[in-house]
Design brief:
The protein has helices spanning 6-24, 40-62, 69-89, 100-124. The protein is mainly α.
Length: 135
């Protein structure tokens, strides 16, 4: 695979992951009596949004955006907006509702993903994790 295709592939992966997450959170649900692990969905929300944050940052740097506080803030605010949209549109799905704690888990996951990306960057010892630049 050519490194010139990495930005497009990273962007397609990002939108694909978001589409899977959005679809999964908009499937009608039946009321569960007693889940085996209460509030496990909060952990799932955080994991999904951490993955989206890392993928978004990888895609952005693949498009030659430089890692910066502004990029991290943009990704965080965008994912909070996506989480709000996701929660609000769930009100129209049978068995679903808008849950502020889910949004909090989404936000926490996005921040953790951004921090993890930053740690990966610093451990790697480079200024960028961009796949579009040659070493």
């Amino acid at each position: 695979m050519s490194l010139r295709k990495a930005p497009l592939i990273a962007t397609l992966v990002l939108f694909g992951l978001w589409a899977i997450a959005f679809t999964a959170t908009h499937l009608p649900m039946e009321a569960n009596e007693d889940p085996l692990f209460p509030h496990i969905d909060k952990l799932v929300h955080a994991g999904i949004y951490a993955t989206l944050a890392i993928t978004a940052l990888f895609a952005a740097t693949a498009w030659n955006y430089r890692w910066s506080f502004l990029l991290a803030l943009t990704v965080a605010l965008t994912l909070v907006g996506v989480g709000m949209f996701d929660e609000l549109t769930q009100m129209f799905v049978d068995g679903r509702s808008a849950d502020p704690l889910d949004l909090a888990a989404d936000t926490f996951g996005a921040v953790m993903g951004i921090l993890l990306y930053g740690i990966m960057r610093s451990v790697r010892g480079t200024t960028d994790l961009s796949a579009s630049e040659s070493p």
